[in-house]
Amino acid sequence: MKQREDRLKDIVNQVFKLDIMEKNRRNEVVEARMVYSQILRDSEFMTLSNIAKSIDKNHATIIHYIKNFNYIIKPDERLWGLYLLCARIYNETDHIANTLELEECRNLIFSLENKIKKLSLEIGRLNLEHETYKKRAETYPELYKLIDERVRPKNVKEATRKLNTYLNGI
């Protein structure tokens, strides 16, 4: 549980650009602690005492944070947005970015860049192929229209054989 608390502290500290363990009563710090407490209460169902211990506060302080959350954080668009951001980041525990080391990230980035290059080449090839078919369809529009209208999918082989026989005779 300590690891999750520390991870949430890091998230809240980064999002709010401050340290919630700082010993002061500035509004920004108190609001960040409120967000931290609410997320732990909602996500981990921690007791008030455990939440309080994790930030060196009294359980009564956490009660105050939880009670006033709806009156201080929710009405303020900026604070509500920061809360939602912290909660989203915290709850994305399965995201690969939360588990990789720096070298693994570099390798993953290199691998993804190679895949992007391959896909770009494939898109280029497919676009070229599409242009070729498009030109053919523009050259023989009546023929394509006739085949599309009159040849059923189950009769494609037979139609191909007959068309080939006819064209060989020309």
Verbal overview:
There is one protein chain. The protein is an all-alpha fold and 170 residues long. The protein has two domains: 2-98, Chromosomal Replication Initiator Protein Dnaa, Chain: A (Orthogonal Bundle), CATH 1.10.1750.10; 102-169. The protein is 76% helix and 0% strand. The protein has eight helices and no strands. Helix 1 (2-16) packs antiparallel against helix 5 (77-91), helix 2 packs across helix 4 and helix 2 packs across helix 5 (77-91). The longest helix is centred in the C-terminal third of the chain and has 38 residues, at 102-139. The radius of gyration is 31 Å and the shape is elongated. The termini are far apart.
Count of individual helical segments: 8
Q: Helix content range of the residues, please?
A: over 70%
* Relevant CATH superfamily of the largest domain: DnaA protein, C-terminal DNA-binding domain
At the fold tier of CATH, the topology name of the largest domain is Chromosomal Replication Initiator Protein Dnaa, Chain: A
Can you tell me the overall shape?
Answer: elongated
Distance between the termini: 82 Å
Radius of gyration (CA) equals 31 Å
Count of discrete domains: 2
Q: How many beta-strand segments?
A: 0
CATH architecture of the largest domain: Orthogonal Bundle
Structural class: mainly alpha
Strand content: under 5%
- CATH class division of the largest domain: Mainly Alpha
Average of the residue pLDDT scores: 90
Largest sheet: none
